[in-house]
Write a structure and sequence with these properties.
Length: about 110
Amino acid sequence: MEMTNGQRNRLIKKELTKKYGSDNVSVVGGMGAAYGWAEVHIYTEKPETCYCKETESYCLECCKEINKKREEASKLIYAIPNIEFYTYNSDDAYNTESDCLSIQVSINN
Ligand SMILES: [Zn+2]
């Protein structure tokens, strides 16, 4: 690792802030068992096509928006020069190696 977790997280925050605004981006380092993880949270507006009712889960349009934002943010993050993450092996049958990066997207009410 060339940079510390804190430096890396600040870079991610800076990059995502350009796109979403600093109020809508949170980047924290994982603690305890999640140490080394970069936990990214993005808050976004409801899509115009939203048809969420007073239910607890998001409508399909919101889910699409969330997936879109997550992919977009992931691309922005991986475009940062020299960005590196710890990796973990998932316990699927293939023992796939994945980065310790979690991107959560929430829709503002
Ligand atoms: Zn919705």
